[in-house]
Amino acid sequence: MMIRSIMNLASSVTMTLLELRKEDEFLEDYLTKVKFKGDRYRVSLPFKEEHPVIPDNYLLARNRLTSSLKRLKSKPEILQQHDTVIREQLGCS
Fold it and tell me: Are residues 2 and 39 in the same domain?
């Protein structure tokens, strides 16, 4: 029982030290990016250096557009209504 509590304490101390190290690294990085120019401070945004690439949905959107156009071409009157609405919206901008 005592060994388990010592292990838990050691684990929590290790985690606390790791968290403090990360906070120190962040603070140090942040302070190096703060610049005072004239009467203002300038600070760059804190971007992550290692970040996951965000996928795009280009192929999905293109396939949906192709499918919608194919369906609308079979109903020319509805296609004409869509075209009219879209042209009106483009004219309002």
Answer: yes
